[in-house]
From TrEMBL:
Region of interest (Disordered), residue spans: 1-22
Signal peptide range: none
UniProt source species: Amycolatopsis keratiniphila subsp. keratiniphila
Matching SUPFAM superfamilies: EAL domain-like, GAF domain-like, Nucleotide cyclase
Residues in GGDEF domain copies: 460-593
InterPro entries: Cyclic-di-GMP_PDE-like (IPR050706), EAL_dom (IPR001633), EAL_sf (IPR035919), GAF (IPR003018), GAF-like_dom_sf (IPR029016), GGDEF_dom (IPR000160), Nucleotide_cyclase (IPR029787), Rev_trsase/Diguanyl_cyclase (IPR043128)
Domain of life the protein comes from: Bacteria
Name of protein: Diguanylate phosphodiesterase
NCBIfam families: GGDEF
TM ranges: 34-54, 61-81, 101-126, 133-154, 166-190, 202-224, 230-248
Gene Ontology MF terms in the entry: cyclic-guanylate-specific phosphodiesterase activity
Keywords from the named record: Membrane, Transmembrane, Transmembrane helix
UniProt keyword Nucleus, yes or no: no
Pfam families: EAL (PF00563), GAF (PF01590), GGDEF (PF00990)
Length: 871
């Protein structure tokens, strides 16, 4: 006979839920109380009516038949098979049909009814499950009353005086049918969902089980009553049926448990995917990367699977590292979170089972505080880290509490939950790292793009600010990158404090930031940017220093003048153009349509570079270098020039950075190298030994195959490696010395001359020079140009010359434009001079003419011709 248990439940109550969830639970409780009263009233009325109507012939010895029936009903219930339904309803398929069908033959209606009530209600009270006594009492009355009413009708229809087996069988099947209908009505009263097909299938199965039980009981009674010595055979059949039921129960339980484990894991995965779909900057409270509200559904699923009155999930929140409760089922009484809770002392990872009847005073008090008679408690652990705690309170069964299978199920489910939770935490961490800057914790460029999509899609007024601080390179040069990073962190905090916690803010790269001001009218953007800059330019305390900083801010509004809608990438691009348009005295600029021509110019240069190279628009100019004091032509520096058909003559400072940023610097370097080696080969064929210097980019020094390519070009043209010089900047080498130094050592081992360009403007230290495999240092032209008027520049040049010579390096001075400067350098012992005083950079044909007109040829030491500059 199915045991029907209805119980109101609600998702996300108490601390975890909204007020509406608690209100709904109380409404369901009131509805269930009305339903219980109706069931009990109908049961009493029906029992009274049937007792007056039926006139069954009673047994002579009721003093022992009544207690034996009660004991049989009690034993039949204890051997029951529990089937839990998700809607908060629990059926127990028991053997009560066996004593009931026998009761039709051996006892009157009143005795069977009393035995059934005594066994059922007595067990509920013994288990201290008082909340469902009235409902179950009404259900007992209706079950037995309905059974005897149907049996009586069948008996009268057949015209028999005594109880027939057909009447007894029909009556017995009525009891589980009545119980099932009451349960389905309870599902409707509690507003739980159950498909019609599910209800029909469940009713059919219960009737089948009831028919088998009734048939076995009826057959056994008839056999024993006709053949008393056949009771061992009846007992064997009964034991076989019991074993069959238990095997069936195990299959049902395993199937149910597997479905539950699968459902819980899928719920965590799906809710994690939903959390991952949220914008990167949303500040939801997350548990393992999952929105905490999604855990209410998971708690409800665990509650239904265990047929528990309440399930409490205590989950660790991120990033606050606090515990949050999610409650499914009965409302949890208020509990002091600071109190020491004996139920939550969980040294291991196993399920602990607490019963109020067996607990010590501390545990009993904790159970009473929860309003529970028993509890299963298990921690969620991963790598010895406590992720949360699962509690299940009071099993919804009128006969028994939590058993060993419930303990096993909750333990396995907790293990799956912990694994899923740990996976979600890992995915959440990876996603956070993908959208956030590791140094400042702010959004990065992809994260900023993700956050800005929604407000821009809604076409609200929005302003993108691009902030560039020029302090990063200064601090890194003077104090190192550690202090520069601290400056960046401090700048990010200032921007956050100035704009507020809700403004999307990102660190793009270096000391560049971007912010999105939503709801900011275009006319207010200038004032907002100026206020922000005022905060950023205040001195930064670095250790015991105070570092001055300057900030340039460019901004772009979503209501552009030249089109209707601009996405976040377009706004960032425009803000970047506006930043680059800032100049001294005007550090805040808004984007204007005319500024877009700058970007288009760069874009055209990059996209047309290869074609221009093939069409001969790029050429190499050469600037001669002479030795001091003998004025001999020592070599030339190769400098690239671009005559664009639309933009005209382009200087290297304009197009080389764009080419380098586009990843095409290798192509440009190969072109300059090839042209220079061709020129050196021609000079060698003429008997002239003149070297060529080619500038290298930091990207060239990151190419592991670059030395091999250079060696191949030298072999191709038959050029001695000492006639090729590579010039590199200090900052280019030291931006990534681990990659650059092996490349430089390999080039140096080939015999190529290496020179440090713009020496004096970067790191410029003895330690720096000692670790680089260089042959020359080139004094930056800014110092050479200032020697005649600034004693400080003169002292710097003299120091560089002395430092270079002390290290055995050749010293080259660039920017020599006056005779006085040349003479001063010669007096200092500088080795090589380069500058406009000697010659400007010249194309190949004009260089040949210059050499013919300005130099004299004389034999050298190695039979080559030497060119000496005419004075």
């Amino acid at each position: 006979m199915p045991d029907t248990n209805g119980r109101p439940g609600s998702a996300a109550q108490a601390a975890a839920g909204k007020g509406g969830a608690v209100t709904e639970a109380r409404t369901d409780e009131r509805r269930f109380r009305v339903y219980t009263f109706a069931v009990l009233t109908m049961g009493i009325a029906a029992a009274a009516a049937v007792s007056l109507w039926l006139d069954f012939e009673a047994s002579d010895d009721l003093l022992w038949i009544g207690p034996i029936l009660a004991l049989a009903f009690l034993l039949a219930e204890q051997l029951g098979i529990n089937v839990d339904v998700r809607s908060g309803i629990s059926w127990t398929i028991s053997f009560t049909e066996i004593p009931l069908v026998i009761g039709f033959f051996v006892a009157p209606f009143e005795v069977v009814l009393a035995a059934h009530l005594a066994a059922g209600i007595g067990t509920l009270l013994a288990r201290k499950v008082a909340g469902r006594v009235l409902y179950n009492a009404g259900a007992f009355l209706l079950e037995i009353t309905g059974a005897f009413a149907v049996a009586g009708l069948v008996k009268q229809a057949s015209g028999a005086h005594d109880m027939t087996w057909i009447a007894a069988l029909a009556g017995t099947l009525t009891a589980p049918l009545v119980s099932t209908l009451l349960a389905l009505a309870a599902v409707r009263v509690l507003r739980r969902r159950m498909r019609v097909s599910t209800a029909i299938r469940l009713t059919g199965r219960i009737l089948v089980v009831g028919f088998v039980n009734a048939s076995v009981g009826l057959s056994g009674y008839l056999v024993i009553s006709g053949t008393p010595k056949a009771w061992p055979l009846v007992l064997a059949v009964f034991l076989g049926l019991t074993a069959l039921y238990w095997a069936y129960s195990d299959l049902l339980r395993e199937q149910r448990d597997m479905e539950a484990l699968s459902d819980v894991s899928l719920m965590v995965a799906r809710s994690g995917q939903q959390a991952a779909a949220r914008p990167a900057g949303r500040a939801d409270e997350l548990v393992g990367g999952v929105d905490v509200r999604e855990w209410a559904t998971i708690a409800e699923r665990i509650k239904d699977q265990l047929a528990a009155g309440r399930v409490v999930l205590r989950l660790r929140l991120e990033p606050k590292d606090t515990m949050r409760m999610v409650v499914a089922g009965d409302e949890l009484p208020p509990v002091d979170p600071a109190a020491d809770d004996p139920l939550l002392r969980l040294p291991g990872a196993h399920v602990r089972h607490f019963r109020i009847t067996e607990a010590n005073p501390d545990v009993r008090s904790a159970l009473l505080d929860r309003g529970a008679q028993e509890a299963l408690v298990v921690p969620l652990r991963s790598a010895n880290q406590l992720l949360g705690v699962v509690e299940a309170h009071d099993r919804l069964s009128r006969w028994r509490g939590f058993g060993k299978y419930d303990v096993q199920l909750l333990g396995t489910m907790a293990s799956h939950l912990a694994t899923s939770l740990d996976n979600r935490r890992l995915l959440a961490t990876l996603r956070h790292d993908a959208y956030h800057d590791p140094l400042t914790g702010l959004l990065n460029r992809p994260g900023f793009r993700q956050v800005a999509k929604e407000p821009l899609r809604e076409q609200v007024d929005a302003v993108v600010l691009r902030v560039d601080l020029d302090v990063f390179s200064t601090v890194s040069d003077a104090l190192g990158y550690v202090w520069a990073d601290r400056m960046v962190i401090a700048a990010g905090r200032r921007i956050r404090d100035a704009l507020g916690p809700d403004v999307p803010l990102a660190r793009l790269e270096g000391a560049s930031f971007a912010a999105l001001l939503v709801g900011c009218a275009p006319e207010r953007a200038q004032a907002a940017a100026e206020l922000l800059r005022a905060e950023l330019v205040a001195p930064y305390p670095v250790d015991r220093l105070s570092v001055e900083a300057n900030a340039m801010i460019g901004y772009a509004t979503s209501s552009a003048e030249d089109d209707d809608q601009v996405d976040v990438d377009g706004l960032l691009q425009r803000a970047d153009v506006a930043v680059r348009a800032t100049k001294g005295g005007e550090e805040v600029r808004g984007y204007m349509a005319s500024m877009g021509q700058i970007f288009m110019r760069r874009f055209q240069m990059v996209t047309q570079f290869r074609q221009s190279l093939e069409e001969g628009q790029l050429s190499v100019h050469y600037q001669p270098k002479i030795t001091l004091p003998n004025r001999q032509i020592q070599g030339v520096e190769a400098l690239v020039r671009w005559v664009h058909p639309e933009f005209g003559r382009l200087g290297p400072d304009e197009f080389v950075p764009a080419i380098e940023a586009a990843g095409l610097i290798g192509v440009l370097t190969s072109f300059v190298l090839e042209e220079s080696l061709k020129r050196v080969r021609k000079w060698l064929d003429e008997g002239l030994r003149i070297s060529a210097a080619v500038n290298l980019s930091v990207r060239n020094l990151a190419d592991e195959d670059f030395p091999t390519k250079v060696a191949r070009e030298l072999d191709r043209f038959g050029i001695p490696p000492e006639l090729l010089t590579f010039e590199l900047t200090e900052s280019g080498v030291m931006s990534d010395p681990q990659k650059a130094l092996p490349i430089l050592r390999e080039l140096h081992s080939l015999g190529i001359v290496l020179a440090v360009d713009d020496f004096g403007t970067g790191y410029s230290s003895l330690a720096y020079l000692r670790q680089l495999p260089v042959d020359q240092v080139k004094i930056d032209k800014s110092f050479v140009l200032g020697m005649g008027t600034d004693l400080g520049d003169l002292a710097v040049v003299r120091s560089i010359v002395e430092l270079g010579h002390s290290l055995g390096l050749t010293v080259v001075a660039e920017g020599v434009e006056e005779d006085v400067a040349r003479d001063q350098l010669e007096a200092m012992g500088c080795d090589v001079a380069q500058g406009y005083l000697i010659s400007r950079p010249l194309p190949e044909d004009r260089l040949e003419a210059w050499l013919q007109a300005r130099t004299a040829r004389s034999p050298g030491r190695h039979s080559e011709t030497v060119l000496t500059l005419l004075t």
